[in-house]
Amino acid sequence: MKPNILFIVIDSLRADKCYGDKKTSVTPNIDSLIKNGTYFSQNITSAPSTIPSIYSILTSLYPFECVAQEGNFFVINPEINNYVKTLERNGYSCYATLPILISYLGFDKVFKDNLETFHRTSTLYNGLGEKIIQRLKSFSMTESWFYYLHLYDLMWISDPANFNSEDGPDEIRNEKYGENQYERIFSVMDSWIGKILRNLNLKNTLVVITADHGTDIGVYNSEMEESNKVFQELRKHDHGIGFKIGQKIARKLPKSMSPVRKKVAEKYTSKTDEKIKDRVKPELEKIEKSELRPYEKRLMQNAVLPTAHVFDDRVHVPLIFSGYNIPSNKIINQQIRSVDIFPTITDIIGLSDVNYGKRGTTLVPLMQGKQVQEIPAFLESATNSTRSSDSNVIGIRTSKFKYFRDRNDPTKNVHLYDLKNDPLEEKNIAEDNKDVVEEMEKQVIEILKGESLEHKQSKKLTEEEIKKAREVLTKLGYI
Prior knowledge:
By secondary structure, this protein is α/β, with parallel strands linked by helices. The chain has 17 helices and 16 strands.
C-alpha cells in the first residue's frame, strides 16, 4: 500500500515566522515535524497571491503557463495537467478542504465531489479543526489518500471588520505566544496541527507543510497593526442603495444586454478605484515624507494601498517534509522553489516519469546530502484578479541577488538587490551593476524562451460563481 499524503498550505505563512531567530510564536508541533523531518529554509514561491502560486505548485509550472483569465479573475487552467490527476491515476483517493473562494476559482474542477469548503472566517479554533479531524477519521484505511488542506487563520486578521481577538483562545491576547497577532494565531494553529497529526500514522504518512505566499502583516508591531485597521477602513467603499437597486435591475436584463452591463460595471469600478486612491493619497504622502527607513516605508505604503509585489516578505515561504521516508533533523539552506514540491513528493512515494516538461525538479538528492546546482527561482507579480493592485513585474531570485523588471519592457522599473548584504531589499543597485542585470535578464529570457506572458482566456465559471468570487475578493481587499 502506498503512503498517505497530508499536504498543508498555511495561507500567508512567512518563512521567517515558521523557523529561525525572528520567530516568537510557540509551535512545539511544527518544531517537532522539523526535528523529525527536513526543512528547506530558502523556499521561493512563484507568485505573491493564492491562485497563481498554488496552481504553480500543483502543476510544477510557472503562473503564466498554468493560470487562465476569466473576465476580471484569474482561475486555474483546467486544460493543464496537475499532480492531483497524477496521484488519482496511480490509485490515490484525493480530498481537499479549503476556503470557498478558491473553489470558485477552479479548484472544484480539480477535486470535484471530494472537495469540502469553508467560509473565510472559519479557523481551526472555531470549529474547522474538529471538522478536519472527523474527515480524516472517515477516510478508508484500505485506500491510499492525498489530502490537501488549506488553512486561512493567518489571513483572517487582515480583515478587521470580521476579526476580533476577544472571540478566540486566550493565547491570541497573550504576548507569551508571540509578539504580534499574526504570531499568536500561529501558536494557536500549532496546537490544532498537533491534534490533527495525532490522528495519523506518521510512519505511513508523508506530511508536507508550506505556504502559498507570505504577508507584510507578519512583521507588524502593535502600532502598525492599529494603523493597518485605520487604513483598511479608509479603503472601504459603501456602494449605496442606488447601486444595489441597479444590480437587481441589471440581473433581470436579457443576456443580449451583457456587453452594456459590463461597460457600466467597469465604469463604476474605475470611478470607485479613483475615489479610494484619492482618499488614501494623504496617508501615502505622509509616509513618504517620514523618517522611516526604506523597508518600513514600503511596509506602511503597502498597508495603505496593498500591492502584489515580489519582495521576500511575499515570496519567501517555509517548506517542511516529515514522516514517511524523510531524513530526520535536516535543515537545508540552499535555495529551492515551490515548483519543486510535487516532483519531490512523487519521487518519495516511488512514482516515475511524471515530471516530463515541468519546471520543477525533485529535492530528494538534496535530502540525501548530494550536491545539486541551485536553480534560479522565477517570479511574477501574478494576482487573483486583474483589478488587484499589481506591480506587474517578472524576475528571478538567486541566493545572491533578486532581479525584477516591468513585465513587458525589460528597460522599465528595473530592480536589483544584493540579498547577502541587503536582506530587507532597501537599496536598488541596478544602475551600478548593469553587468549583473544583463546576466540575470538573460536567465529570464531563457526561462521564457519566446513564450507569451499573456494569460489564456477561459470560459469555465458560471455567472453565479463569478458573482460570489467578486464578493469575496472585494471583502478580502484583493479588488
